[in-house]
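User: Please predict structures.

Assistant: First:
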Amino acid sequence: GTCLYLGAVILAVFIAAGAEPDIKVVCARDSVKVTWRVSSPFVPYAARLFLGSCMPSKWQLLPSGDGEAFFDYKFSECKFTKQIRGKNVVYRNELSFRPQAKGRPVVFKQPIECVYKRPEGWIPPFLNPGSGVSEGHSNLVFHMALLNEQLTGVAKTNVIPLGSFMPIWAAVEQKSHQPLLLLMDECVAATTPKLNPGSQVHQIVGNHGCLLESKRGSAVFLPRYHSSAIILYIQAFNFGLGDEVYIHCNLVVWDEGALGQSRKACHVKDHGSWELLDDPSRSSVCSCCDSVCSSKAKRSVGESGTSGYNTVLGPLVIKDLSAASNATLVGSLPGGSL
């Protein structure tokens, strides 16, 4: 009873204070300094002010009776999250006021962000092709994985709600080949881990690198962070709902700059026309995506007679959560119907 009453009183005072919070943020190279000035009613609760999981590193009582909480922490502390947004690296956290013990509601939250330009040629650690040995043309090592929505790591679940985005990452270890351009020549979704003549399939990429799904919905190739990797950003589609789905891709590698009708990554952009991912000024090579793209080209980098590498991602499970919630609602009504 006392704790609840205390929380209600503090909340009322906080709302009455009403003004914009007096918060100053200074972003350094790998850390942040935050100064949070609070009015006198909150001074007794200085220990309940947090930056993420961290308490103030310094507290000062001002002559006016107000107080100032100082937070000076590295991004490796306080549970900061790191996100990649296009050409930027973003570190996020939040200031919070918790008048009661952990587990009780937070009375106030204020997001804190530090945004930095991504270094040229920088590769996120989790996307680094790794330390495996790759020697000669025959030992290229390919990888494919499903990333989380923030593109900050490999997804922790293989269950994807219908309509949500699933970033599919592919990369090639290229230690003995500098540099290589990785392309998705063809990708299909199937309900089986191995493709056979009877497999039910949904074509995603075809016609030598044309992202066909971008004509049907919101799908693009994301800007590259390195030529040896590519991220297919695609909306979960209505295929094999509730069952296991596997993404089968034929990955090919070329000498960087060797773009053409048979070696390209093309997608339909907002303007409704095909665009070449790696050089929009040469998007004319994508014009064949609506017909048939020529396959007359020199062989890709690899064993003689080998055009690429077939890799499989899965199983993934695409679920229509709205249908599931509607079924639950109907089932909970008297008589089981509306």
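Second:
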Amino acid sequence: APAAMEAREPLRDVRGALRAVLARVREGEPGEGREPFEPPRFWDALGQTFQVTSQEATKLSLAFSRPPLPSAEDCRKLSEDVQNAILAVATVYYWLPKGQGTTLRKMVRDATTEVVEGMIQLTDTILNAPVESLSQEQLISTGGVWEACEQVSNLPRDNQAAVASALAACLGVVKDAVEEMEHALVEGQDPYGNIMEDEELGFRGNRDTYWSEADRQLLSSCMGLMKASKACLKKVLGAVKAYGKAESPEQIAQLDDLADIANEISPSVDELALSMYPPVNPLAVRLNAAKLASVLKKILEIAKTSHVCPPSEEGWVQFLNDAVDHNMNKIKNFTQGQL
């Protein structure tokens, strides 16, 4: 086995080099290009580097899948090719200037780090595996690199597409939260009935797990606010798809602002939903509702003053603003006595 270990030595160096690349990609700032940025050239190059990386992963994995093992010389060559493929991926990623949009850059960065992480995982697996056989882990790791490399074809090609996909993801999360809460409220008087039944008595005397009538009044306005969150995201997403452009720096920045504030909506919805379960603390509910309401008013404000809202869109902005205020005022009224 010493000879086998010796043959794999170059892979150790590669793993170290790949970890350094990973750290750089995670933290690094892009070069503000020396030459003008050409999207078609960038996407072609990125697609090619991802493809080459996929092929190198296959070659490396095959070389270590059955005896005889590659010679030290072959292993050095394989290792060098893997390292060059990953360096090429990182280099092309760095061509993408910040000015193209931070939402787009984050998505390309995530795809890039997944490829590098996948390759690190594969070298790990080969270094830790018994030498004679192709392990299940090695198959899984190789598939992982292939999958990460295929991601490039699904990436949004500009910041308008990137922000639309970010908003759609937020909307999906909020939809789920709203459905879950509606379901809990319909389940009847006792949201925990199915899990906390007292076996002997067939009921529980603990008020803390029930919603009182007053709780339910308060919660219906909270539901109103949660539904308004879903409507805001849906409408803003529609406007971004219909009117969003990523041509001028101003348009690109406005889209990023929308994505940034949209990212605050689902955590705020979750916080509010958590505080709605019994025992209800009306003040906690009010605080969480106020936080969500302010985030919603902010996204409506940003949308309204941006290029995605021509005058024809101002009706729904006003309508949703009013819906947020209406529900928030009711929540304030219900909790007034608690202050």
